[in-house]
């Protein structure tokens, strides 16, 4: 039986992004060997969306209060790529990872599946 999922974030600066997840977000982790940290994520869900020609995958973190979460993360030095924007289904912004990538962050307004 499937008992979990493993998410991979590809990074131009993996050490900096690992430090971000460890030190800024405070996610518990294990060292899988040689400094390859694997982080425990909050409860998760997966959605399948239609796509045209270019297939891609995205990772979004979720929160109950985006305004407060943005304030907390900003006080820890996190850079936001965009201002929070109401999308109808939720309020969305993006975090700049130290390695240069982006990570979505949103407050859902839809029913969630992560605690079923």
UniProtKB/TrEMBL annotation:
Domain VOC span(s) in chain numbering: 3-108
Organism domain of life: Bacteria
InterPro entries xrefs: Glyas_Bleomycin-R_OHBP_Dase, Glyas_Fos-R_dOase_dom, VOC_core
Pfam families found in the cross-reference section: Glyoxalase
Protein name: VOC domain-containing protein
């Amino acid at each position: 039986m499937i008992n979990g999922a493993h998410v991979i974030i590809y990074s131009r600066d993996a050490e900096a992004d690992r430090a971000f997840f460890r030190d800024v977000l405070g996610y518990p982790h294990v060292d899988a060997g040689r400094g390859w940290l694997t982080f425990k994520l909050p409860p998760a869900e997966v959605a399948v969306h239609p796509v045209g020609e270019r297939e891609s995958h995205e990772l979004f973190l979720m929160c109950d209060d985006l305004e407060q979460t943005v304030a907390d993360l900003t006080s820890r030095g996190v850079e936001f790529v965009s201002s929070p924007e109401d999308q109808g289904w939720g309020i969305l912004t993006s975090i700049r990872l130290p390695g240069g990538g982006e990570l979505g962050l949103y407050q859902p307004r839809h029913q969630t599946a992560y605690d079923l």
